């Protein structure tokens, strides 16, 4: 049996589990042992994946609360790094400007592309006192102020309308909450009309609610 080095640091989790020839993994005061016969008898990727998943779950269940928080932060950071390192941001954004805005000039709803969430937004103005808009909020913070924002490009609205269009990219990180907020302004008074809420779960953008905001007259 070839045990992995003992470590109390959650950052060592991935390296410990994937070390070549490792049959025993220590974390903190707990240990997981891969039976040698099982390790030698794995014949397919499905069996290997199942073995790895079972071992990982068992290890996580043995962790302290602090260790769980640290591992969650590591996973979050790795997802951000992959979003930054993978894909062609220029091509994604260029394509979004071509197809992510309707005839009314407003942005369509966000979508997942590779390891990023593509979030179009913008404003269409008929006059200085009147406009329609649709923007994205990330965990209750406007996307342009979010620390998770990877990149945002802006362009002036085409045609005769005033306003602008924007395409922002977010990392595909589980647990992020996204709100798509549609609103308008009339005579200088701004109001919210509709909100579509999403959450990133298991690498997918899952709609969790829609609500229409009734204005008081």
Main features:
single chain, 217 residues, alpha+beta, 38% strand, disordered N terminus
Fold topology:
Layout: H1 13-18, E1 24-27, E2 30-33, H2 36-41, H3 45-61, H4 65-85, H5 89-99, E3 111-113, E4 116-127, E5 130-138, E6 141-142, E7 151-156, E8 162-171, E9 177-186, E10 189-201, E11 204-212
Antiparallel strand pairs: 1-2, 3-4, 4-5, 4-8, 5-6, 5-9, 7-8, 9-10, 10-11
Detailed description of the structure:
The protein is built from five helices and eleven strands, in the order αββααααβββββββββ. It is 28% helix and 38% strand. Strand 9 (177-186) and strand 10 (189-201) form a beta hairpin. With 217 residues, it is α+β, with helices and mostly antiparallel strands. The strands form two sheets. Strands 3, 4, 5, 6, 7, 8, 9, 10 and 11 form a nine-stranded antiparallel β-sheet that branches. A two-stranded antiparallel sheet has the order 1-2.
Q: Summarize the amount of helix as a percent range.
A: 25-40%
Mean pLDDT: 78
Number of helices: 5
SSE order, as H and E? Answer: HEEHHHHEEEEEEEEE
Radius of gyration: 23 Å
Largest sheet: 9 strands, antiparallel
What's the shape?
elongated
Distance between the termini: 75 Å
Let me know the number of strands. Answer: 11
Strand content: 35-45%
As residue ranges, the low-confidence spans are: 1-14, 16-45
Structural class: alpha+beta
């Amino acid at each position: 049996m070839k045990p992995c080095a003992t470590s109390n640091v959650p950052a060592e989790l991935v390296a410990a589990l994937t070390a070549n020839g490792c049959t025993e993994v220590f974390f903190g005061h707990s240990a997981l042992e891969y039976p040698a016969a099982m390790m030698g008898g794995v014949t397919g990727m499905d069996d290997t994946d199942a073995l790895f998943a079972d071992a990982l779950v068992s290890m996580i269940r043995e962790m302290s609360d602090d260790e769980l928080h640290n591992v969650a932060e590591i996973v979050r950071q790795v997802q951000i790094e992959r979003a930054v390192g993978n894909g062609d941001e220029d091509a994604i954004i260029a394509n979004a400007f071509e197809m992510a805005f309707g005839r009314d000039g407003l942005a369509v709803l966000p979508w997942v592309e590779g390891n990023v969430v593509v979030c179009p937004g913008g404003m269409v103005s008929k006059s200085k006192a009147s406009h329609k808009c649709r923007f994205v909020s990330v965990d209750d913070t406007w996307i342009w102020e979010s620390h998770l924002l990877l990149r945002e490009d802006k362009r002036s609205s085409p045609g005769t309308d005033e306003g602008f269009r924007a395409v922002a990219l977010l990392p595909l990180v589980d647990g992020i909450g996204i709100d798509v907020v549609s609103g308008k302004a009339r005579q200088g008074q701004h109001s919210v009309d509709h909100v579509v809420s999403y959450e990133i779960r298991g690498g997918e953008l899952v709609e969790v609610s829609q609500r229409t905001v009734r204005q008081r007259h």
